Amino acid sequence: MVAMLRQAVEVHQAGQLDAAEALYRRTLQMQAGQPDALHFLGVLCHQRGRSDEGIRLIRMALRAAPLHADAHNNLGNIHKETGKLADAEACYRQALAYNGQHHDALSNLALVLEAQQRFQEAFEAYAELLERAPRLSLAHYLMGMYLRRHVNEIGDLEHAVACFRNAVRCDGSNVRALDALGVTLYMLGRQDEAVGAYRDWLGREPDNPVPRHMLAACGGEAAPPRADDAYVREVFDRFAESFDEQLLKNLDYRAPQVLVDALIGVLGVAEGALDVLDAGCGTGLCGPLIRPHARRLDGVDLSGGMLEKARLRGGYDDLVAAELTAYLQDHPETWDVVLSADTLVYFGDLVEVLAATHAALRAGGRVAFTLEAMDADEDRSELSSSGRYRHARRYVERVLDAAGFVEVSIAASALRKEVGKPVAGWVVLARKSRRG
């Protein structure tokens, strides 16, 4: 039985969930109520989307082994990931009561306190973790991220930089800290140092598209005409779990609402008669806003992780993982509306994607999208140190005209915040001629 349980854990850790579940259940047939088998099977059930069953199994394990700090911590994780923050907090505190050195439980406690907007308590928990585990890379990283999310003064960013550098010193394999370090340095305007951070990261992971793109964004290499698919997929798959919370709560993200409001202004009364494509749909924030106008609502995105969140949000008739330009090219004269909130910021050259959009619209169809604004009179775009592209108004006008669009409207609007300041953007509307 012990050997079978050990094997179950090994295949579980290897991601072989079917085999692991079968072995855990066989273990429980041999010894009903075995707490480790119940605990790990509960974790597995949550991973497979059966969170209620996972909670029930871990609670059974805790009745057999009430002092099991790891089980309390994992039960807290399920509550946290299903939005039951008060229950999660209680579990983490219970884990710490039985094991005061349970660093995972303490870091998780800090995270749920922050999620409940109990910021002083969260800061104290992050500080306590650092005090208890000064050589733990994660402790420095989490404190740095907290400081960057809650910037009150420039000193907070400077402190975050020190935290990320310490995280790398404690664990050279912690490339998340190098990523965070580069972003924080560009936020401070210290481009040369950001280049150094991204070169360091690329040296450790030469096949990773993220440091390569960000190195170019900070001027360390020539800028590509658009972000590589692998970069976009990697960033947003990694970001999917916390995307809505980070953008909506921490960055005052307004692009979907501003874009759809502008579009509704020209569409008029919702009649549910239009075929709509949400191009770069992400987690589906535009979906509920545009759905009343749609007979059919499709979404396309490169990131499978983001699409899964959109699928859970609901409202879409179809969701497809694909590169946007190629997808549009494969669907001529298919939609009445193509809207795209903060997707074309990953395209420097808009010529091909807007030509493909024009071809994918029916006669008289509309395109609506947002861009980050470049304050310049020139006809050009540029890759900014954020990793996103900015576009000048004259450039956007020229490309839309060349693609065949008419009735072009480009309005200035703040779409999000960065370091507490609004990010200038364009809200762009245009129509395909009714003559096709």
TrEMBL record:
TPR repeat boundaries on the chain: 69-102, 103-136, 175-208
Ranges for domain Methyltransferase type: 277-367
Gene Ontology biological process terms, A to Z: methylation
Pfam families: Methyltransf_12, TPR_16, TPR_19
Alphabetical UniProt keywords: Methyltransferase, TPR repeat, Transferase
CDD domains on file: AdoMet_MTases (cd02440)
Superkingdom, natural source: Bacteria
InterPro entries: Methyltransf_12, OGT, SAM-dependent_MTases_sf, TPR-like_helical_dom_sf, TPR_rpt
Alphabetized GO MF terms: methyltransferase activity
Gene3D superfamilies from the UniProt entry: Tetratricopeptide repeat domain, Vaccinia Virus protein VP39
Keyword Methyltransferase: yes
Identification of the protein by name: TPR repeat methyltransferase
